Amino acid sequence: MPSKQELLDLQFIDARHKLIDLAAFLDRIDRHPGADDFRYAALKAALPILLTDRPDRARAVLDAFSDHSTEPIPKAVFQGALGAPR
Amino acid sequence: MWWLLIFRNPHRRLFDLQTFRPSDIFRMKYIEPHAHMVSRTTDDYEKLAIAGCEVLCEPAFWAGFDRSSAAGFYDYFRQLTDYEPKRAAKFGIQHYCWLCINPKEADDPGFAREVMDIMPQFLDCPNVLGIGEIGLNKNTRNELAIFEEHVQLALDRELPILIHTPHLEDKLKGTRLILDSLATFSKLDRAKVIIDHVEEHTISQVLDAGYWAGMTLYPQSKCSPNRAIDMLEIYGTERLWMNSACDWGVSDPLAVPRCMLEMKKRQHTAAAIEQIVYHNPRKFLSQSPRFV
């Protein structure tokens, strides 16, 4: 198993790139006209998870973006998925 | 860009350059257990063969649009059982398939049952492994009813089952509904069921219940190679496989060999890589008498 140092050597630049891209996305949404929606709110609500010390942040972010209802719905109103529950 | 770091940081050992040989990976054989080749070009078969793919399995799925009649599925099943095996064989790849009506079109139960009436004509074809990829899409009552009818068909014919779990925000709920539904089939052998497209929030539920789990390496909507490797490191390699699920969307038929390379970079041994990309799928698929 690689050490922390080896993983940083291997993946830090990629993680840095992804974080800057996310920051730029937030800036872009704020800068543009019109109203945001539930997806933007879900994204901002999930961000604090990254700063916790829990060992399963990826799982927690996925949970935050999930529909937690339990009953099947009567009929699909569309076929796709939007990435965050309404 | 890992190679840049090696040359800029010559004293750091990302992995052992003395012993690492790309040929360790690229000579390794592997099984692609989930790819929708009807949507791909013949060039992709060539690339898969060059990368070491020996066996490829193609579950029946949604074509990106709803078919206008059940006859569309008759032709699709002919393609899966007759044409694709021949196209794959030109590159030395053994082609198998799974049959069903996919969850998206299963929300119309009348239409779904028309398609299910066609399926028995094809279930005895020599490359048909079992029933799949059944499952849920938007977690509707109709999808669930047709899912359960497929599970019963598989039980009646003693066939393995490949299950699709929903996308994005629907995955957690859909996985739970599928697990609850499967638990009502008392005669179901859970070792003959693989629940595909697991992610960090669903994998433990699937494995803890005794099923196999599939990790799909698909851009944006499913797992990245590094997240899949994280799950391997956390949960071990038992009852797990990796696939590309390449299809008509932006996807990568070489996702599995790319993940093999990432595993090597993260110091997984050749034996560990071969276990997950070859021996595990072989073990699960061998439960179908058609898999040779």
CATH topology of chain B: TIM Barrel
Enumerate how many helices of chain B there are, as a single number. 11
* Major sheet strand order of chain B: 1-2-3-4-5-6-7-8
Report the major sheet of chain A.
none
Q: What is the level 1 CATH name of chain B?
A: Alpha Beta
The beta-strand count of chain A equals: 0
What would you call the shape of chain A? extended
Any low-confidence stretches of chain A, pLDDT <50, length ≥5? none
Radius of gyration of chain A: 17 Å
Description:
The complex is a heterodimer of chains A (86) and B (292). Chain A is mostly helical. Chain A has three helices and no strands. Chain A folds into two domains: 34 residues; 34 residues, no CATH class. The longest helix of chain A has 28 residues. The radius of gyration of chain A is 17 Å and the shape is extended. Chain B is globular. The N terminus of chain B is likely disordered. Chain B has a single domain, classed as TIM Barrel (Alpha-Beta Barrel), CATH 3.20.20. With 292 residues, chain B is of the alpha/beta class. Chain B is built from eleven helices and eight strands. Classes of the chains: A mainly alpha (86), B alpha/beta (292). At the A-B interface, helix 1 and helix 3 of A face helix 6, helix 7 and helix 9 of B.
Keywords:
heterodimer, A: mainly alpha, 2 domains, 3 helices, B: 292 residues, TIM Barrel, 8-stranded parallel β-sheet, 14% strand, disordered N terminus
Give the topology.
The complex is a heterodimer of chains A (86) and B (292).
Chain A: H1 4-31, H2 38-46, H3 57-64
Chain B: H1 2-8, H2 22-26, E1 30-32, H3 42-51, E2 53-59, H4 70-89, E3 94-99, H5 109-118, E4 128-135, H6 141-157, E5 161-164, H7 171-182, E6 193-196, H8 203-208, E7 212-216, H9 225-235, E8 240-243, H10 255-265, H11 270-285
Helix pairs in contact in B: 4-5, 5-6, 9-10
